[in-house]
Amino acid sequence: MSDEVKTCKDCKHFIADGSSRHGLCELKKSRIDKWGQEVSIRRMASGKACKKAEPAASQSTDDAPLRELETYKQEYRLAAAANRQLADALDKAREENKMLRLQIFAFVRNSAVLPVGRRLNKSEQEITDKTFETIEAAKNMIDVEAVKAAMNLATKRENRFNNAD
Predict the structure, then answer these.
(1) Considering only CA atoms, which of 53, 61, 3, 64 is closest in space to residue 25?
(2) Which of 1, 39, 43, 52 has the fewest CB atoms lying closer than 10 Å?
(3) Residue 44, Cβ neighbours under 10 Å: how many?
C-alpha cells in the first residue's frame, strides 16, 4: 500500500480506503428526514458525513424546508383525494350490493315462496325464513361458469358479465 493520502476531489476530506472510491466521497442514501423520506448524504470511508461535498440541490437554504413542506402537503392532498375516490367507489358498491340483495329477496319471496306460504296459512316469519332457505339452496345449485357464459350472450354490452365491474 502506498504512503500517499487519498482525499475527496470535491471537498478535500481524507478517504481511508481510496482504492474502491477513486478519490471521491461515497454517496449513500442513509438518513431519514422528519417527513420519512430518505436523504442523500456523502460519507467518507470512516462513516463521517462529508457536508462540503453534498450536491448543491441538497444543501440547505432558507427556502428548502418550505419547499419540502409544500411537497409533503401536495403529496398529502393527492393521497387524500385518492382515498376519497376509493371510499366513494366502495360506498357505491356497498349500496349496489344492498339493492341487489333486496331485489333477490323480493323476487324469490313474491314469486316462489309467498304464494305457497299463503296457501298453507304460514306466518310472515315462516315465509321470510323459507325465503332465505330458498336463496341459500339456489346459491348451492348454481353453476357459476354456466351463468357467466349465459350472461355474456346478452345483446346489450352493459348486461354482460365482463362489464359488470
Answers:
(1) 53
(2) 1
(3) 22
Residues 6+ apart with CB under 8 A from 132: 105
The closest of 32, 25, 65 to 49, measured between CA atoms, is 25
Pairing status of strand 6-7 against strand 14-15? antiparallel
What is d(CA 56, CA 54) in angstroms, rounded to the nearest whole number? 6
Which single residue is written with the C-alpha cell 466521497? 25
Distance between CA atoms of 19 and 55, rounded to whole angstroms? 23
The sign of the dihedral angle between the CA atoms of 5, 11, 17, 23 is negative
- Give burial (CB, 10 Å; 0-12/13-18/19+) of 74: exposed
pLDDT digits (tens, 9 = 90+) for 97-145: 999 999 999 999 999 999 999 999 999 999 999 999 999 999 999 998 9
Q: Are 53 and 25 in contact (CB under 8 A)?
A: yes
Q: DSSP letter for 49, please.
A: B
Looking at this protein, which amino acid is placed at residue 16? A
To the nearest 10°, the Cα dihedral for 99, 101, 105, 107? 60
